Amino acid sequence: MSAPDLTAALERIPGWFWPADQRLFEWFLSDEGASGDVLELGTYLGKSAVLIGDHVRRGETFTVCDLFESDAPDADNDAETTRSYSSLTRRRFEQNYLGVHDTLPEVVHGPTSVILDHVEAGTCRFVHVDASHLYTHVKDDVVAARTVLKEGGVVAFDDYRSEHTPGVALAVWEAVAGLGLEPICVSSQKLYGMWGDPAPVRERLLEWLATRPDLWHTTDVLGERHLVRVNQRKKPKPAQPQSELDRLTAELRRTTAELKKVTTESQHAVQALKKATKEVSVLGPVAHRAAGWLRRRATPAK
Ligand SMILES: C[S@@+](CC[C@H](N)C(=O)[O-])C[C@H]1O[C@@H](n2cnc3c(N)ncnc32)[C@H](O)[C@@H]1O
Q1: Is 238 inside a domain boundary?
Q2: In the 8-state DSSP scheme, what is residue 19?
Q3: Which ligand 1 atom minimizes the distance to the CA of 46?
Q4: Would you say residue 237 lies in a domain?
């Protein structure tokens, strides 16, 4: 599918998958050197799945896993899904996906805790973890991702730093601190990492980012590590033709600024004048007496 068509299709699907992450997914998924299956945990209405599906190659399997309209495995997870995804059904996901692609991915309709029954260990080149935000679930999703990834495979964790998703943050940074997850880069929404040396991927990522005028990036220090931070650049506002009102407002602003400047200057002049007058009024009597004295000295005594 052409890039503009895919962008238009993505815009029609509700979800939380922003342009910087769309570009990063495209980059990671286009890696010619990597082959293997692709997995998404938490697919909702298919916004990220539709883009991922565009990069699945012949012979590769794309699997998505979601509860859809089914009950969650525990009360907290149930509260989370009822609150945030009440309109979700598997049928709506499938309709959205088939609006863009000819065939559906493999669908695991159930909790992410069963994913290892469906996806073999060491088979995936890319995993997107975007299901429950609760620590007890995300920590298991981390382990599942590590299990299914091939050597050099990449995992993207959504919501690794939002204030309403502390469980994701805890599980992800715990994996960095203790489970060997190596972060490659972050966006405001997602953390991308791998199990293995991230340096070569990071170098290639930086080379690519240098060619992207739409993406801003920098590199932060994270202890011994370096972490690339990527964001969408703000588009400059297109120049608007100036209305008469805009022109008059701008002129009024300029005149007001000019008036303020003149007022300040005249206030300074008045103050200087006041000071000079004061000095004259202090010196006046002294000068008067000095002149009298000089006059008396100059006048010969009778
Ligand atoms: C944030 S949404 C996914 C958004 C989607 N990736 C996108 O970019 O539009 C989270 C999804 O995870 C699903 N989910 C929540 N808890 C789950 C669990 N324990 N197992 C499987 N799916 C779960 C929800 O039903 C919801 O569809």
Answers
A1: no
A2: H
A3: 9
A4: no
Q: Whose CA is nearest to atom 9 of ligand 1?
A: 15
Asked if residue 258 and residue 139 are part of one domain, the reply reads no
| Any atom of ligand 1 within 6 Å of the Cβ of 67 | yes
149/255 same-domain check: no
Q: Which domain holds residue 266?
A: 244-302
Same domain flag for 131 and 79: yes
Query: pLDDT (tens digit, 0 to 9) for every residue of the chain, 302 residues total?
Result: 787 788 888 999 999 999 999 999 999 999 988 999 999 999 999 999 999 999 999 999 999 999 999 999 999 999 999 999 988 999 999 999 999 999 999 999 999 999 999 999 999 999 999 999 999 999 999 999 999 999 999 999 999 999 999 999 999 999 999 999 999 999 999 999 999 999 999 999 999 999 999 999 999 999 999 999 999 998 766 666 668 888 898 889 989 888 988 888 888 888 888 887 887 777 777 778 887 888 877 776 54
Specify the pTM.
Answer: 0.80
Q: Both 125 and 54 in a single domain?
A: yes
Q: 204 alpha carbon to ligand 1 midpoint, in Å? A: 31
- The domain total for the chain is 2
Ranges assigned E (strand) in the chain:
37-41, 62-66, 106-109, 124-129, 149-158, 182-186, 190-194, 215-222, 225-232
**Cβ–ligand 1 contact at 216 (below 6 Å):** no
Ligand 1 contacts CB of residue 96 (under 6 A): no
